[in-house]
Recover the amino acids of this structure.
C-alpha cells in the first residue's frame, strides 16, 4: 500500500494502482478522453497529464503507477497549458460539425474544450481522411469525427472479444475501423453498440430512426404502437438530468402518448411470455434427457440478447442447438401485435406499425433479420434507442419533468416483477427460476424476497445451484436434482463460460446458462445514456429491483394477462401456434 501525495493530500493506494486511480480516491478529478474503467489503459489521448516531482516530463496519469513517496501535482500552470495544447491539437483535426452533430451537448471533447477555456483553433491545416460507413442496420461511423482515442477498440476487443475494429495507417491517414478501412458489414460485428456507448464524440453512433417514427405517426392510415423494454424506465430520466437509477415509468408513458402513439405497451408483457416458453422448453429438454434417455442439447442458453445470438452464430455455431428457440421479448411482442392485437382491434397487420424503444443497438439489427416475420409481415418495424427517445421527446417540446405518471395500456401491457429484472444481468435466469421452481414443486422459490443472490451483481461470471425437493408427481424425475445455472455478461465472459463447457469440466455441467451481450445486462446497453460506469450500472440495477419488488405479481406465470392470452389465443406453451409465432432458428455464419 504505497503512500503518495497528490496536490498536498497524502493517500494510501493498492499496489499497482495508477496515479489516475489514486487521484480519484483522493477526490481529485483528472480529465481523460481515452480511459475506460476496469479496462487496460493505453495513454493514447494524453489529456490526463500530471506533474511528478523529480520527473523530467509530464506523465500520463492513467498508465503511470503510483509508487511510494511520489509527489504529484495535477493543477499547475505547466499541466493546464499542456492539457490545453493537447485538446487544441485534437480539435484542429476534428471534423466536428457541432451544430448538427447528434452529440452536440453530450460530447466529452466539447465539454473538455469548454472546461479548458478554448475559444478558437490555432492550428488550421490538413485534416485526416474522412470515411463514412452506413452499411449496418444498427451503427453509423464518421471517421472525420474520430479522435483516435481507441476506446472503441478497447471495448470491442477486451470486453466483447470480437475485435471488429482496430487502428490502421499513420499520420493523417490514420483510421479506426475494420480491416483495410472497410465497412462494418464486411467483418464480424455483433452490432452491440458498446463502441457507440463509449465513444467520447460522434465518430460511432446508432443509426437514427427518429424521422421514420415521425413519418408513421403522421400517416393517418397507420395504427402505430410502441413497446418499451424494462431497462428504459431506469435510464431515460438521465436524458432529462435525473440521477442514474431514477424510475420514470409513468412519465415515460405520458411522453409516449403525447408523441402520438395509438398504443403504449410494455415489452415486459412479452418478457413474461418468454419465461413461459423458455422455461417450458428447459423442462422439456430435462425430461427428454432424464426420463426418455434422449440426447438433447444441454445446457440450454437464453436467447433474449441479439448481440449474443450473432456472436454465437459466428464464433460458436456448434452451440446453436443449445440456444433456446424462443424469440426475444421484442420480437414476441411484435408477432403478437401483428396477430392477436390486430385481430382484437379489427386492424390489418400491414396497417399496424410496431415501434420498439430498446437499450440496445443490436435490436435494430434483430428487427431486420429475415426470419422475423412469422406474422406474415415484419414483426417489429422501427427500433429507437433510449437516447433517440430522449431526443424525440425534446424535439416535441414536451416538459418531461412536468408530466403526470400514466399507466401502460392493458392488452399487452401488464407484467410481473420477474419481467422487470430482464433488464439486469442475472435477471432472466432469476425470472425463469421463479417460474420453473414453482411449476415443478407447487411452491415459490424458498427465498423470502425471491432473489437468487449468487447470480446478482456485476461479477463477470456467476453460478448457482438450486436443489429441487418435494416435486409434483409429473415432475418426480427432478426430485433431488441440483439445477446448476451460470450467468455471464459481456461477451468476453461468455467466451470463458463456453470454453469451460467445451472442455468437459465437471465444474461446468450446467443445465441453464444466461448470457447478456452488454456489461451489466440491458441496463448497460449500447443505446443507453452515456457514459455508463459501474456506479451508473449499480444505480440502474437497484432501480429495476425496486420496480420488481413493488409489484403485486412477482412471477411470470401469475400474470393474469399471460394466462388470458394462452386461453384465448396461444393455447399452451410450446403449442403449435406459440411455436409458429414465438420461436425461431439461428444460422451458422462465416468467421471472417
Amino acid at each position: 500500500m504505497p503512500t503518495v501525495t497528490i496536490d498536498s493530500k497524502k493517500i494510501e493506494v493498492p499496489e499497482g494502482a495508477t496515479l489516475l486511480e489514486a487521484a480519484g480516491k483522493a477526490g481529485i478529478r483528472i480529465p481523460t478522453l481515452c480511459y475506460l474503467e476496469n479496462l487496460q489503459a493505453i495513454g493514447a489521448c494524453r489529456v490526463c497529464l500530471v506533474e511528478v516531482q523529480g520527473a523530467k516530463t509530464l506523465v500520463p496519469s492513467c498508465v503511470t503507477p503510483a509508487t511510494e513517496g511520489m509527489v504529484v501535482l495535477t493543477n499547475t500552470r505547466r499541466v493546464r497549458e499542456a492539457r490545453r495544447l493537447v485538446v487544441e491539437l485534437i480539435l484542429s483535426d476534428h471534423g466536428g460539425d457541432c451544430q448538427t452533430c447528434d452529440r452536440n451537448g453530450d460530447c466529452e471533447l466539447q465539454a473538455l474544450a469548454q472546461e479548458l477555456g478554448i475559444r478558437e483553433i490555432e492550428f488550421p491545416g490538413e485534416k485526416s481522411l474522412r470515411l463514412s460507413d452506413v452499411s449496418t442496420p444498427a451503427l453509423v461511423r464518421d471517421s472525420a469525427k474520430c479522435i483516435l482515442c481507441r476506446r472503441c477498440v478497447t471495448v470491442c476487443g477486451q470486453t466483447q472479444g470480437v475485435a471488429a475494429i482496430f487502428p490502421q495507417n499513420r499520420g493523417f491517414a490514420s483510421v479506426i475501423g475494420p480491416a483495410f478501412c472497410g465497412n462494418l458489414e464486411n467483418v464480424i460485428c455483433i452490432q452491440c453498440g458498446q463502441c457507440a456507448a463509449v465513444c467520447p464524440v460522434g465518430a460511432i453512433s446508432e443509426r437514427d430512426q427518429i424521422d421514420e417514427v415521425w413519418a408513421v405517426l403522421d400517416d393517418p392510415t397507420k395504427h402505430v404502437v410502441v413497446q418499451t423494454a424494462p431497462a428504459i424506465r431506469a435510464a431515460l430520466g438521465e436524458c432529462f438530468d435525473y440521477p442514474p437509477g431514477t424510475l420514470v415509468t409513468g412519465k415515460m408513458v405520458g411522453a409516449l402518448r403525447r408523441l402520438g402513439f395509438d398504443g403504449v405497451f410494455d415489452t415486459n408483457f412479452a418478457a413474461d411470455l418468454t419465461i413461459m416458453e423458455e422455461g417450458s422448453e428447459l423442462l422439456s429438454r430435462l425430461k427428454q434427457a432424464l426420463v426418455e434417455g434422449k440426447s438433447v442439447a444441454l445446457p440450454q442458453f437464453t436467447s433474449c440478447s441479439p448481440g449474443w445470438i450473432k456472436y454465437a452464430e459466428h464464433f460458436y455455431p456448434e452451440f446453436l442447438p443449445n440456444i433456446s428457440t424462443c424469440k426475444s421479448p421484442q420480437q414476441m411482442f411484435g408477432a403478437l401485435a401483428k396477430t392477436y392485437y390486430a385481430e382484437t382491434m379489427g386492424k390489418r397487420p400491414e396497417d399496424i406499425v410496431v415501434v420498439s424503444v430498446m437499450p440496445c443497438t443490436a435490436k435494430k439489427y434483430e428487427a431486420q433479420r429475415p426470419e422475423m416475420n412469422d406474422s406474415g409481415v415484419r414483426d417489429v418495424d422501427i427500433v429507437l434507442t433510449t437516447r433517440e427517445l430522449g431526443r424525440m421527446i425534446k424535439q416535441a417540446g414536451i416538459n418531461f419533468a412536468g408530466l403526470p405518471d400514466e399507466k401502460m395500456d392493458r392488452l399487452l401491457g401488464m407484467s410481473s416483477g420477474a419481467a422487470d429484472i430482464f433488464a439486469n444481468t442475472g435477471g432472466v435466469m432469476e425470472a425463469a427460476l421463479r417460474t420453473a421452481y414453482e411449476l415443478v414443486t407447487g411452491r415459490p422459490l424458498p427465498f423470502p424476497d425471491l432473489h437468487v443472490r449468487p447470480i446478482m451483481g456485476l461479477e463477470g461470471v456467476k453460478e448457482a445451484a438450486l436443489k429441487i425437493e418435494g416435486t409434483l408427481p409429473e415432475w418426480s424425475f427432478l426430485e433431488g436434482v441440483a439445477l446448476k445455472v451460470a450467468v455471464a455478461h459481456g461477451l468476453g465472459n461468455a467466451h470463458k463460460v463456453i470454453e469451460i463447457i467445451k472442455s468437459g469440466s465437471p465444474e461446468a455441467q450446467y443445465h441453464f446458462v444466461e448470457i447478456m451481450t452488454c456489461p451489466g445486462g440491458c441496463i448497460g446497453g449500447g443505446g443507453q445514456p452515456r457514459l455508463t460506469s459501474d456506479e451508473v450500472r449499480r444505480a440502474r440495477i437497484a432501480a429495476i429491483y425496486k420496480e420488481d419488488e413493488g409489484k403485486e405479481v412477482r412471477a411470470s406465470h401469475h400474470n393474469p394477462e399471460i394466462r388470458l392470452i394462452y386461453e384465448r389465443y396461444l393455447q399452451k406453451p410450446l403449442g403449435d401456434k406459440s411455436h409458429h409465432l414465438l420461436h425461431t432458428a439461428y444460422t451458422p455464419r462465416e468467421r471472417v
